[in-house]
């Protein structure tokens, strides 16, 4: 029995596959390589290149492989881009989920661990955020993920497809040996952009907004190491396979860092000056997003290994130094 990782060539997906294989699981990857990288796919995973909106592709895959459960991390995930191109998000994310669920139902695959997001909460009513808190997304990315969560819930009711939705806060870092890491084109995420400046590939960091309702005026986010996220998926899958009911869990470190604090931490880790300037707000950014992850710790037994943002940045810096241009396949 194999685990299907949809989106297994992506940043989080490639770390997910690496961890599953390290733990002796049989892994199948589906990815259309629109943003993922062939070189990021573990050589021991069986790779099927195709799109989760393509029912024929999925039917062929489910016929050739015996899939026990699906880890669904195949979605577009850029807040800013979703504000200017919302239909791209509803098409890839929501339509992809419809087709994947149809294929799972047709091939009697009953378990899904789904990559959801803190962006489902919108502007949080309290901090840290708990799973049952009010959800009112303020960008199409978060809206698409919330719709996807609702869709699986109804498929659980109707077809008994059990799921765990994992609402990630800010995924960051890389495998400590620097062999896989984050490589987006264009890059929009805070840590890789800061490290591009540190590596001399970009003049300066632009900090988007300095008048938010936070202690230093810049956005506060909760950074969680990508391998800790991967471990939570394995725990979630085993939780479902053990017969437990569908659930949602927040995954974060429970500590918020402002963009200014992240910059200061990166200066310490890299020893580089990293010039920065204040810039206008980016659309769709809530002031602060910090997780209460106690439910995942208590119910799944999740124990994140990285609890210091400097250590997280250090792993991203190791990747940057060993792969200054990323996978070099674009
Ligand atoms: N950010 C920034 N400058 C950049 C990129 C990001 O100030 O060049 C800010 C962004 O506005 C947000 C935080 O960094 O407050 C984290 O953004 P990122 O895109 O990394 O993740 P998101 O929170 O959108 O998932």
CATH architecture classification of the domain at 2-171 and 224-251: 3-Layer(aba) Sandwich
- Radius of gyration over alpha carbons? 19 Å
How many runs of DSSP E, i.e. beta strands?
A: 13
Return residue spans where pLDDT drops below 50 for at least 5 consecutive residues.
none
Structure annotation, total helices: 10
Shape: globular
Cofactor: NAD(+)
GO molecular function: UDP-glucose 4-epimerase activity
Subunit structure: Homodimer.
EC number: 5.1.3.2
Can you tag this structure with a few keywords?
globular; two-stranded parallel sheet; 38% helix
Describe the structure in your own words:
With 330 residues, the protein is α/β, with parallel strands linked by helices. The chain has a domain of 198 residues: NAD(P)-binding Rossmann-like Domain (Rossmann fold). Helix content is 38%, strand content 17%. It contains 10 helices and 13 strands. Helix 6 packs parallel to helix 8 and helix 6 crosses helix 10. The chain is globular. The model has no long low-confidence stretch (mean pLDDT 97). The chain binds uridine-5'-diphosphate. The site of uridine-5'-diphosphate has 14 residues, from helix 6 and strand 8.
């Amino acid at each position: 029995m194999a685990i299907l990782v949809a989106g297994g060539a992506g940043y989080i997906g490639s770390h997910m596959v690496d961890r599953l294989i390290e733990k002796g699981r049989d892994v199948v990857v589906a990815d259309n390589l629109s943003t993922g990288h062939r070189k990021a796919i573990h050589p021991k995973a069986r790779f099927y290149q195709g799109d989760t909106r393509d029912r024929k592709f999925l039917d062929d895959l489910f016929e050739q492989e015996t899939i026990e459960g699906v880890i669904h991390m195949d979605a577009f995930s850029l807040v800013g881009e979703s504000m200017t191109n919302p239909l791209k998000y509803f098409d890839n994310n929501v339509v992809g989920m419809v087709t994947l669920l149809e294929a799972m139902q047709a091939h009697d695959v009953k378990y899904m661990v789904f990559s959801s997001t803190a962006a489902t909460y919108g502007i949080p009513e309290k901090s840290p955020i708990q799973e049952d808190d009010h959800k009112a997304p303020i960008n199409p990315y978060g809206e698409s993920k919330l719709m996807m969560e609702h869709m699986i819930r109804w498929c659980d009711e109707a077809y008994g497809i059990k799921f765990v939705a994992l609402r990630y806060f800010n995924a960051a870092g890389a495998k400590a040996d620097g062999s896989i890491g984050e490589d987006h084109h264009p890059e929009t995420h805070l840590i890789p952009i800061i490290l591009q400046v540190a590596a001399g590939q970009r003049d300066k960091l632009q900090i988007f907004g300095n008048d938010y309702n936070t202690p230093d005026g810049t956005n506060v986010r909760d950074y969680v190491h990508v391998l800790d996220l991967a471990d939570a998926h394995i725990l979630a899958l085993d939780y479902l396979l053990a017969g437990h009911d569908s659930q949602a869990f927040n995954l974060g470190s429970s500590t918020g860092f402002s963009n200014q604090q992240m910059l200061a931490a990166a200066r310490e880790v890299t020893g580089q000056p990293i010039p920065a300037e204040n810039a206008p707000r980016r659309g769709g950014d809530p002031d602060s997003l910090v997780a209460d992850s106690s439910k995942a710790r208590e119910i799944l037994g999740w124990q994140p290994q990285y609890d210091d943002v400097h250590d997280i940045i250090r792993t991203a810096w190791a990747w940057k130094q060993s792969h200054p241009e990323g996978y070099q396949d674009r």
